[in-house]
Amino acid sequence: MSLLPKLVGEQKALLLLSSIVDSSDDAIISKDLDGTITSWNKSAERLFGYTEAEAVGRPITMLIPEDRLQEEPQIISRLVKGERVDHFETVRRRKDGTLIQISLTISPVHDDEGNVIGASKIARDTTMVKRGERANRLLSAIVDSSDDAIISKSLDGIITSWNKSAERLFGYTEAEAIGKSITMLIPEDRLDEEPEIIRRLRRGERVDHFETIRKKKDGSLLDISLTISPVKDANGTVIGASKIARDITERKKTDAEIRRINRDLEQFAFSASHDLQEPLRNVKIYSELLTRRYQHKLDGEALEYLGYLQTGASRMQNLVRDLLAYTRVTTVPQSMEKVDANEVLSAALDGLASLIAETGAEVTSENLPAVPMFDAHLQQLFQNLIGNALKYRRKGVVPTVHIACSRQHNCCEFSVRDNGIGIRSKYREAIFEIFKRLHNDDEYSGTGIGLAICQRIVEQYGGRIWVESELGRGSTFRFTIRC
Amino acid sequence: MAYEVLVAEDNAADLALLKEAIQLEPIECVLHVVRDGEKALTFINERNANVELPGLDLVLLDFYLPKLEGTEVLSHLRSTARFQRTPVILMTSQHPNVLPPAVANQSCVFYFGKPSSLDEFLEIGPFVRRVLSGGGDCSETRLDTPESRNLPA
Lengths: 483, 153
Known about the structure:
The structure holds two protein chains of two kinds.
Chain A: H1 3-23, E1 27-32, E2 37-40, H2 42-48, H3 52-55, H4 71-80, E3 85-93, E4 99-110, E5 116-125, H5 127-145, E6 149-154, E7 159-162, H6 164-170, H7 174-177, H8 193-202, E8 207-215, E9 221-232, E10 238-247, H9 249-294, H10 300-328, E11 338-340, H11 341-351, H12 353-359, E12 362-365, E13 370-372, H13 375-391, E14 400-407, E15 411-418, H14 450-460, E16 465-470, E17 474-482
Parallel strand pairs in A: 12-14
Antiparallel strand pairs in A: 1-2, 1-5, 3-4, 4-5, 6-7, 6-10, 8-9, 9-10, 11-13, 14-15, 15-17, 16-17
Helix pairs in contact in A: 9-10, 11-13, 13-14
Chain B: E1 3-8, H1 12-23, E2 29-34, H2 37-49, E3 58-62, H3 70-79, E4 88-92, H4 101-104, E5 109-113, H5 118-122, H6 124-133
Parallel strand pairs in B: 1-2, 1-3, 3-4, 4-5
Helix pairs in contact in B: 1-6, 2-3
């Protein structure tokens, strides 16, 4: 009576065990002491690629790569002594020949008398784990070898990691920095930056290339560029931040040096062109005086020579004047008040009044916007471009000039369209080079600086200037200004 | 009686034109010419120290002078007891916008931008005559802006 339920109980237990074995994610295999496989679960099939039928009765060595065959006798010798092999990291070969990294736990199987008759093996695929570990090691090597300081902190500003470059840059060792507040790096007059950074991080925003100053361990200050990204947990909640700090001391120095050199050059060009004016003035005025007072005493040839002298001096005066204007186009401040382009245009047209009257030109314009520029700069642009449109007019055609402006997404695109002689396509970029001319002075007089000035002005405002043209039909100069 | 005029100008060509332009005017002037800033200072000091000597009705001052610049001569002139309100015509080819404020804010200082054509340059003659005929008191005709070139006749 009592035997049957017990058997049923044992059968139940066996069934339960076998279903556990089959549903395990780990490969569970048993073998005898000769190394012949005696059982093979579903996961073993998945892991190694052999079906149960293919595996049972075959030697376990079919799973072992040749260079690891010596592992088996060692394992057997430990099993025979009744020892267990725990989490042995090794490599095994799948049916298709590929190698997998596994962690093996092997326990001896005893008979009723306690003799070891075989072994059960639990094999876990650790390829992904290994890959993760490798990736981690690689990442931390990258972080450590970076020239930038890479720091992480919690949202309350406590430093949680600190790489080698952070040590080099700020002077604190990893041990000194971790657990401290990030504010130890912030100079007192910049402490208000931190709450603002934290606010932005909490919103999940990134802070990009924020140029600021930080304090080193020795108290000295450092120019850095900071990029700060929020660190999120698996649920997407911001739990901290990673900071990448780049030392920009050298760059700042170079920038300052370049600015100084530019200023010197501007000053030099200004002085040079200014000092050139005075002797030129003398040449021009005295050749005029000579012509006027001694005309009756000079023969035709002498007067012709005097004429060349005067023309030369006048041309040089124009060159010097335009060079001065060119050097005066210097750095523009970041924020500018807006000027009404309509008013600036009408001032430019006043300046061109005599040329407009002389050529009988028709100058029209559309309603123009207000733009953040110095009015003198915009006026110079209009004056040079409209002046060119009138100068390079076609013979026998009433010159027309039309000024318009269209709003692009973040800039205003001005256009000055004429019906003049046009420009060959191969010259459409060269005309903006300083001193570049397409005509001799007998055809069209000029210094070759006007368009260079225009380009310099436009580029100071982060814009661009170019020309569209049809030879013999006219040209349209366009320039953009951020607005 | 002839006007006493100090001319501080280093450029011989400009000086010759200046003399010619003034001679064309129906006024009698004694021109005391110095060719650098230091000599201008010496002359001013002499006249300031010795009240027996005639005063100065006008100083024609070039902006860029050797040794001492025109602005320095000007501030020295104003530091004397005798020439605090003596009219000065500052001559320069520099744009008046770039003149230092110390100069632009002075009273009795007129500006003459040296032009690059003969006829325009000769206008310095009538300009000098108008300043001189305004008398020693220049409070009513005080013009220290570029418009001073077009003084009312």
